[in-house]
Specification:
Number of domains: 3
Order of helices and strands: HHHHHHHHH
Oligomer: single chain
Strand content: under 5%
Number of strands: 0
Length: 176
C-alpha cells in the first residue's frame, strides 16, 4: 500500500525524520530508537540522533510515562494494570512507570471510575433492575471488561456488589 521509506544517510536527515515523528505524537526512547533504526542502516547514526534528542529535551521517558498515564486514565478510563502493561510494551523503564502511576493514584479515585463504567454499562442494559435472566452473564461480562481495562479484581468485585447487590465470583485474577 505505502512505498517503503528510503534509507536516510545523514544525521540531519535522520534528525528531521525524528522531529516529524515527534510532531505527530510523543514517543518513548525505545519507540524512537526502533523508528530510526528502520530509517537508517547506520546504528551509530541512530545513537547520535537519540542522544541529540535527549539532550534537547525532546525525548524523555519520565515525561512520556506521565503524559501517557494521564491520557489513558482520563480519556480512556483505564486502570493501572493496563496502563503499566502498555507502557512496558513501549519500552518505558519500570521506575518511570511506577512514578507516573503513583502520581496518578494521588490525584484520581479508581473506585469512582469503576462505578461510572459499571453504571454506564448497566444503563445500556436498561438499569440494574433490568438485568433479568441473563444477569449472571451480563455481570460477568462487565467484570471481565473492567479487568481488561486494568482495574484490580477486588475493587471491581466490591463496586459490582455495591451497585448490583449481587455476589460476584472470585477468580483470583488481578491483571488480564
Amino acid at each position: 500500500m505505502f512505498a517503503k521509506p528510503r534509507k536516510l544517510e545523514t544525521e540531519s536527515e535522520l534528525y528531521e525524520a525524528a522531529l516529524r515523528a515527534l510532531s505527530r505524537r510523543a514517543h518513548s526512547i525505545h519507540d524512537m530508537k526502533q523508528n530510526l533504526a528502520r530509517r537508517a542502516d547506520n546504528r551509530l547514526l541512530v545513537q547520535v540522533v537519540l542522544a541529540r534528542l535527549r539532550e534537547s529535551g525532546l525525548l524523555d521517558d519520565a515525561r512520556y510515562a506521565k503524559q501517557f498515564t494521564r491520557y489513558r486514565a482520563e480519556s480512556r478510563r483505564q486502570g493501572k494494570f493496563r496502563i503499566a502493561r502498555d507502557l512496558r510494551a513501549r519500552g518505558v523503564p519500570d521506575r518511570h512507570i511506577n512514578a507516573a502511576l503513583d502520581e496518578r493514584a494521588a490525584e484520581a479515585d479508581d473506585s469512582a471510575v469503576v462505578r461510572q463504567r459499571i453504571e454506564r454499562k448497566l444503563r445500556s442494559y436498561g438499569g440494574p433492575h433490568a438485568i433479568g435472566k441473563a444477569g449472571d452473564r451480563r455481570i460477568a461480562s462487565i467484570y471481565r471488561s473492567l479487568l481488561r481495562a486494568g482495574f484490580p479484581a477486588d475493587l471491581v468485585r466490591r463496586e459490582l456488589r455495591s451497585i448490583t447487590r449481587e455476589d460476584v465470583p472470585e477468580t483470583g485474577e488481578h491483571d488480564v
